[in-house]
Design brief:
Blueprint (H helix, E strand, L loop, with lengths): L9 H9 L7 H12 L3 E4 L6 H14 L10 E4 L3 H15 L8 E4 L6 H6 L6 E4 L1 H9 L10 E4 L2 H6 L3 H10 L5 E6 L4 H10 L4 E3 L2 H5 L4 E7 L5 H11 L5 E4 L3 H13 L4 E4 L5 H13 L4 E4 L1 H4 L9 E4 L6 H8 L9 E7 L4 H11 L5 E2 L29 H15 L1
Parallel strand pairs: 1-6, 1-7, 2-4, 2-5, 3-4, 5-6, 8-13, 8-14, 9-11, 9-12, 10-11, 12-13
Helix pairs in contact: 2-3, 3-4, 6-8, 15-16
The structure holds adenosine monophosphate.
Amino acid sequence: MSFSSLGLAPELADAVAGIGYEQPTAIQAAAIPAALRGADVLGSAQTGSGKTAAFALPMVHALISGKRERRGLYGLVLVPTRELATQVGEAIRKLVQRLPQPVKVSIAFGGVSINPQMMALRGGTDIMVATPGRLLDLVEHNALKLDATSVLVLDEADKLLDMGFSEEIASILAKLPARRQNLFFSATFPPAVQALASAMLREPVRIEASNEEAHEPDILQRAIEVDAPRRTQLLRQLIKQEKWSRVLVFVATKYASEHVADKLRRNGVRAEAFHGDFSQGARTEVLADFKSGRLQVLVATDVAARGIDIARLPVVVNYDLPRSPADYTHRIGRTGRAGESGVAVSFVSADTEAHFRLIENRQQKRVPRERIAGFEPVQQAAAPVASDPNGGIKGKRKSKKDKLREAAAQGKSDG
Ligand code: AMP
């Protein structure tokens, strides 16, 4: 199958070939014809599936084929983080850079001065990729109008809601024309995401081509049993023994991120922390160093690492387990991208075993437990909740929330 057979304009199919995409991925093959028809799309897809081109190419096609009915912003892409805004915006710019007609792609996110973003919008824009809060700021400053927007894309809708953007999304929806196309992508579909999708979408084409192609066969999941205090040492040994060239290590807290990176550096590993307290400039620099190979290990929190795209990342390590199964899916999705294979290693201790089971249950997949010689665990799980002296069992079983809280607290105390 080729891109031109999906109905894309020949110059666009050429541009895609020019950046080295030989064949559409599964999500592209399913979503592009549907979006070109003008249908709403509900896609179950992760980063790595090729979803960016899946929603961007039909928009660009409409723009260069003179299908635009109204003047003003044509396509709005909402993303949860600044990293994703940059990544998606740059990916779309790459798609349009060789086209005969110019297509203007703008990027906006919070946490930096709004003025340059306002300046960049002078003279209008065709496609806007933005985080929801900053987008509303730009609208309030009259830097951008949404009344001509024909296509709305929600990218990583689950993360948008996780990060508390539901009110902003509601405000944005209220400002958009009622008659528009909606393309909705999410890696997971908890009830809040389903509710938003059914409120927004009209008879959507459902696409679940997602992960099987880009992920399932390509990510080897491993779980290594180790006592929490020995994880850094084990990590060092694995990096050396298994000759990991580049590793993204996930931890639960900013403190752990600094602490683990520091310990690795002291042992001669080129490691750096990566968390939400970094300035935008520092994040960009650290990411560039990691991408270029100057850094071997990035020790990141979920928030900081969300959505970052690093080509050919061979290994992801869950030093601390993620809080939710959804985060686990996101984390391991950083490896084995676009058809390449990868390894996702999780450190599991007696205290986090139950939590890891929950993650396994959710993905309906067991991961065999391994032990590494010299790092066999000796610690027991913490004692269960004490019984009530009156006879009844106080608090009964721990709720899921309690377990998650404990797992998170454990990450904090020993990070
Ligand atoms: P995405 O899921 O959109 O973040 O894309 C993941 C990666 O796959 C990016 O690095 C894209 O450049 C790449 N990619 C997307 N579509 C294709 C394709 N049809 N062929 C090869 N690589 C692709």
